[in-house]
Amino acid sequence: MPESRARIRATAMATGRVLAALVLIMACVACDRLSRYTLVSPEYGFSVTFPEKPNRVSDKNYEGLPKHLWTVFRSDRKDFYSAQATSYKEALPTEGWLPGKAVGDLVGIQLLEGRRFKLRSAATGREAVAVATTSLAPGGGIISTIYVIDGAKLISVTARTENEQDKTAFLGSFKLLQ
Fold this sequence. Notes:
This protein is of the alpha+beta class. It has helices spanning 2-35, 101-107, 164-172, and strands spanning 37-41, 46-50, 55-60, 66-74, 79-87, 110-120, 127-136, 142-150, 153-160, 175-176. It contains three helices and ten strands, in the order H-E-E-E-E-E-H-E-E-E-E-H-E. The strands form two sheets. The chain has a seven-stranded antiparallel beta sheet, with helices on both faces. Strand 8 (142-150) and strand 9 form a beta hairpin.
């Protein structure tokens, strides 16, 4: 009889430890999700989920129209996430367009890969021209960007991080809304 009580007690303690571990894991996952921030821009028709609330800077583009930049720097500015959006007075050309090549050449960013595709809004089925690029920064580090031309709007999201899972999650969260 004392052996069965000891066995029951050991089983109960093991079960309690497993439940405590599960509660701790669920709390960590919940905290991680709470720190994320989904930016929704009705003005430019997109959303993207940052690892935390981004800083926003507003300016004007060369045509004098509003330009917005949202950024998150992490790990002593080593990890970087951004979204940028602006509009122009006329629809932007998309044929043969390779974003940022000229500017990248000036500042030493080397374009490694560029791929064109159509980004589709799940809500409406509307499509926009998109280009995904992978570049090498002068000081090292891979920069991954998705650019979208949506008529007269230009939107981009960028991630620079060694954590492939975080980069994929950020870029994969980018959605057209309308």
